[in-house]
């Protein structure tokens, strides 16, 4: 059994600043906007180009605002944790600009550079790796005369965590015959990864009374525990991605219809891998990179939407581990409407995918419609649709007048009020119905109800 930590009993709420609350009417959420809603956040009972690690993105305002945010949270008994992006920086940073043109610059090894390769006399990139956001993971840099690697967009150059002279970049297996670029997620996580995480803990986190949460996807099951074991000193807990990515095989935006048996399998896996050891787990159904859970795992039909949200809230609340919710999840927020055209979306991965489909199918309307349906189901923007005033940076969900915090705060039976219901010392048998029909249930004889 892992040692008792206060944060293990807490509930975390993820906030995406650009769409949470706009304090000055410029259409962009900001830190003062978050501060203005701290009482609302407290009532919930909760306890990515990097230009500069020491400053605040200008539209979000200032470092002083961040300090005010931290003070405001602490005054309400709320702890705050920031998303630390160490995988990459912007190519517009001074570090990258110094690294690019000179092989003798001290910052040259801050990033990963590789020469072009030739196969049968033809020029090729260093490997066939596909970036997470479609296209090649390698970008040519004219000043350097070499390629740099970016697992995400080309403006986000990956850090070199170890001198690259000993590193190789073997081609990933061919699993997508329709593309020269192959999914290479399993290639990104080499055997040195645990060493790097341990080093971060030893040099930074171990000196503070703090918690960390990591993110694992495409990691072998046998390695999961090593990242959350207290003895291993990697992370406090981790997000396992297999549940929220349920369905896709090769093509993320063409998912198969998920099966409840698979949902239960991954849920059980998330619960059981910490049994009888010193690890811990994180439970979530939404974050800034997923669809809305009501639409993804239930029904966003107004007839079933509220019950779906309550069912999923009960599911999260009854699991062993720390609970994480995403802004708006407490209000039964849904995906964007199915009739939105591709032009309404801002997510880079979705737009790149749609562009690739247009090119590879010569604008075939049937295939494009299928791609748009996949984007509507699972793309990233759904958890980032704005809640702000003024002219928003992207379109607001069409049902924003139907689903409001103001209405739900005064309605004792609303989704927002539902988790606050107290059962005192009562025990309850929880039965969850994932269908849109009434189901019969026979209580197992071994369960005794008083």
What would you note in describing this structure?
InterPro entries: GH, GH13_cat_dom, O16G_dom_2. Residues 14-375 form the Glycosyl hydrolase family 13 catalytic domain. Keywords: Glycosidase, Hydrolase, Maltose metabolism. One of its GO terms (molecular function) is alpha-amylase activity. By secondary structure, the protein is an alpha/beta fold. Helices cover 26% and strands 10% of the residues. It has helices at 17-20, 31-36, 38-43, 63-75, 94-99, 185-188, 193-203, 221-224, 260-272, 293-297, 305-317, 348-361, 365-378, 405-409, and strands spanning 11-14, 88-90, 113-114, 117-119, 122-124, 129-130, 138-141, 146-149, 156-158, 182-183, 213-216, 237-240, 282-283, 322-326. The protein is globular. Helix 12 runs antiparallel to helix 13 (365-378). Residues 163-167 have low confidence and may be disordered. It is built from 14 helices and 14 strands.
Number of strands: 14
Overall helicity: 25-40%
- Helical run tally: 14
Reported CATH architecture of the largest domain:
Alpha-Beta Barrel
| The first-level CATH class name of the largest domain | Alpha Beta
Overall SS class? alpha/beta
Query: What is the count of distinct domains?
Result: 2
Q: Averaged pLDDT, please?
A: 81
What is the 3D form? globular
CATH topology of the largest domain: TIM Barrel
Which stretches are low in confidence, meaning pLDDT under 50 for 5 or more residues running? 163-167
Strand order of the largest sheet: 1-14-13
Rg over alpha carbons: 23 Å
- CATH superfamily caption of the largest domain: Glycosidases
Largest sheet descriptor = 3 strands, parallel
Q: What proportion strand? A: 5-15%
Keywords: Glycosidase, Hydrolase, Maltose metabolism
InterPro entries: GH, GH13_cat_dom, O16G_dom_2
GO biological process, one term: sucrose catabolic process
Domain Glycosyl hydrolase family 13 catalytic: 14-375
């Amino acid at each position: 059994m892992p040692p008792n930590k206060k944060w293990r009993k807490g509930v975390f709420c993820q906030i995406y600043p650009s769409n949470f609350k706009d304090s000055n009417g410029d259409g962009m959420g900001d830190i003062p906007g978050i501060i203005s809603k701290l009482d609302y956040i407290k009532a919930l009972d909760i306890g990515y180009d990097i230009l500069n690690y020491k400053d605040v993105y200008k539209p979000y305002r200032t470092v002083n605002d961040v300090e005010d945010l931290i003070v405001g949270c602490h005054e309400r008994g709320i702890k705050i944790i920031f998303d630390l992006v160490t995988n990459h920086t912007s190519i517009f940073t001074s570090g990258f600009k110094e690294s690019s043109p000179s092989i003798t610059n001290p910052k040259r090894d801050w990033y990963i550079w590789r020469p072009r390769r030739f196969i049968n006399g033809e020029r090729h990139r260093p490997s066939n790796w596909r970036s997470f956001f479609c296209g090649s993971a390698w970008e040519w840099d004219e000043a350097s005369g070499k390629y740099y690697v970016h697992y995400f967009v080309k403006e986000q150059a990956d850090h070199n965590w170890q001198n690259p002279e000993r590193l190789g970049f073997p081609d990933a297996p061919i699993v997508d015959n329709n593309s020269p670029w192959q999914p290479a997620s399993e290639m990104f996580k080499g055997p040195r990864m645990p060493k790097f995480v341990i080093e971060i803990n030893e040099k930074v986190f171990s000196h503070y009374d703090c918690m960390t949460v990591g993110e694992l996807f495409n990691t072998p099951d046998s390695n999961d525990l090593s990242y959350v074991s207290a003895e291993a000193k990697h992370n406090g807990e981790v997000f396992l991605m297999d549940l929220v990515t349920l369905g896709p095989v090769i093509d993320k935006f063409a998912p198969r219809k998920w099966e409840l048996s698979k949902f239960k399998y991954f849920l059980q896996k998330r619960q059981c891998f910490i049994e009888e050891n010193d690890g811990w787990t994180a439970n979530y159904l939404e974050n800034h990179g997923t669809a809305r859970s009501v639409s993804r795992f239930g029904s966003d039909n107004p007839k079933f939407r509220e019950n779906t949200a309550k069912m999923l809230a009960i599911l999260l609340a009854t699991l062993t581990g720390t609970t994480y919710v995403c802004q708006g999840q407490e209000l039964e927020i849904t995906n964007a409407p199915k009739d939105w055209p591709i032009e309404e979306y801002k997510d880079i991965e979705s737009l790149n995918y749609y562009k690739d489909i247009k090119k590879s199918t010569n604008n075939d309307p049937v295939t494009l419609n299928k791609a748009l349906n996949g984007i509507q189901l699972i793309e990233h923007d759904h958890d980032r649709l704005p809640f702000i005033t003024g002219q928003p940076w992207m379109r607001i969900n069409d049902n924003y007048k139907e689903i409001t915090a103001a209405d739900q705060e005064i309605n004792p039976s609303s989704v927002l009020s539902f988790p606050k219901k107290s059962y005192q010392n009562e025990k309850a048998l929880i039965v969850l119905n994932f269908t849109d029909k009434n189901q019969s249930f026979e209580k197992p004889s071994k369960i005794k109800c008083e």
